[in-house]
Design goal:
The chain is of the alpha/beta class. It has a single domain, classed as Rossmann fold. 48% of the residues lie in helices and 15% in strands. It has 9 helices and 8 strands. It has a 5-stranded parallel beta sheet. It is globular and about 45 Å long. The structure holds adenosine-5'-diphosphate (2 copies) and zinc ion (ZN). Residues 130, 132-133, 135, 150, 152-153, 155 line the site of zinc ion.
Length: 219
């Protein structure tokens, strides 16, 4: 089963795609996480994309398409994968379809997390993750059960993303509106798009997501 999560920055793609990965045992692939790892490692790719990411712009299609093409050929994707943060442009969407075709695969479902733009600023400004295990939290919506301690691994160190500053968020939303939202009709016309009410609580969103996935696996 191959799934795409679409939605603006802060919609809940990472949160929900990790829960899907745990529930269905298919690989979660976050292009944002992959790029941040390249930046942290100081690799040639990381050096190329660092300032682009910091400004809230999209990195060039050819770089990200090559990254994904190599990633979905890895053995852990044999049972399927969940894409979080890719595709983000029409060119990426088309490249994805043609690379999957080469290996006899296709996208089964595209989940769109529908969220009011007003809600995104607080979600993004409040986002932080455990430095040790990567579990995601939020100042307003998902605090650790014990203050300062990760629910999952017991870690005490948390990190915030460089690009989650309010100044950069406007550029990221603009990129979503202008470059990513136009790919929705591409999937809608093919009958692959499923809209999820992303304004609901995290648990309610998860229920909707699992129901949408179960509906296609039982077909
Ligand atoms: P994305 O991957 O789409 O950018 P995240 O999954 O990282 O979004 O979520 C952004 C922030 O909002 C995180 O801090 C997360 O804990 C929080 N969040 C996710 N889903 C919800 C929700 N349904 N309601 C409130 N906060 C949420
Ligand atoms: P968010 O979770 O807030 O939607 P991501 O972690 O997915 O953000 O992406 C962070 C940054 O990484 C983006 O602002 C962009 O610069 C870059 N990026 C991630 N995925 C892509 C992609 N598919 N195409 C172009 N740039 C990307
Ligand atoms: Zn942790």
């Amino acid at each position: 089963m191959n799934i795409i999560f679409l939605g603006p920055p802060g919609a809940g793609k990472g949160t929900q795609s990790k829960l899907l990965e745990a529930h269905y045992g298919i690989a979660q692939i976050s292009t944002g996480d992959m790029l941040r790892a390249e930046v942290a490692a100081g690799s040639p790719l990381g050096q190329k994309v660092k300032s682009i990411m910091a400004s809230g712009q999209l990195v060039p299609d050819d770089l990200i398409i090559a990254l994904i093409e190599a990633r979905i050929d890895r053995p852990d994707c044999a049972k399927g994968f969940i894409l979080d943060g890719f595709p983000r442009t029409r060119a990426q969407a088309e490249a994805l379809d043609s690379m999957l075709k080469k290996t006899g695969r296709h996208i089964d479902l595209v989940l769109l997390l529908d969220v009011d733009e007003d809600a995104l600023a607080d979600r993004i400004a409040g986002r932080f993750t455990c430095a040790k295990c990567g579990e995601g939290y939020n100042d307003l919506y998902k605090r650790p059960k014990v203050e300062g301690t990760c629910d999952v691994c017991g870690g005490h160190e948390f990190v915030r993303r460089e690009d989650d500053r309010r100044e950069t968020v406007a550029a990221r939303l603009k990129a979503y509106r202008e470059q990513t939202a136009p790919i929705l009709p591409y999937y809608e016309e093919q009958g692959r798009l499923c809209r999820i009410d992303g304004m609901a609580d995290i648990d309610d969103v998860t229920k909707q997501v699992f129901a949408a996935v179960d509906a296609i696996t039982k077909k």
